[in-house]
Design goal:
Number of helices: 2
Bound molecules: zinc ion
Helix content: 25-40%
Oligomer: single chain
Radius of gyration: 20 Å
Distance between the termini: 55 Å
Largest sheet: 3 strands, antiparallel
Structural class: alpha+beta
Strand content: 15-25%
Order of helices and strands: EEEEHEH
Shape: elongated
Length: 94
């Protein structure tokens, strides 16, 4: 099992001499490159999606969104018309 609370992106950004410099951002997905005898690796969203799109990697697992994110999106959706109304009112006043 991946501990998503501590996992950091393993994507190698560059090499300095013989040292790999890794991305280190919080990891949100696990990817495996097709046909490569290495990995799988955990990566941040940016690196993981880049590898899935451009480097022939498949996403094996994703960090689950915390429930609160889903709820706040729902609240935001409900609030949106009111926010727009408020913004347009402010715009007219200025
Ligand atoms: Zn990364």
């Amino acid at each position: 099992m991946i501990d998503w609370t501590t996992a950091t992106c393993e994507e190698v950004l560059t090499m300095v001499g013989s040292i790999y410099l890794r991305c280190g951002e919080p990891a949100v997905m696990q990817v495996k490159h097709r046909g490569r005898d290495e990995g799988p690796y955990v990566m941040c969203r940016e690196c993981g999606e880049h590898n899935a799109r451009n480097r022939n990697a498949v996403v094996l697992a994703r960090k689950a969104l915390p429930k609160v994110d889903v709820i706040s999106y729902e609240i935001a959706e409900h609030l949106m018309p009111e926010v727009y109304a408020l913004l347009s009112r402010l715009e007219k006043q200025s």
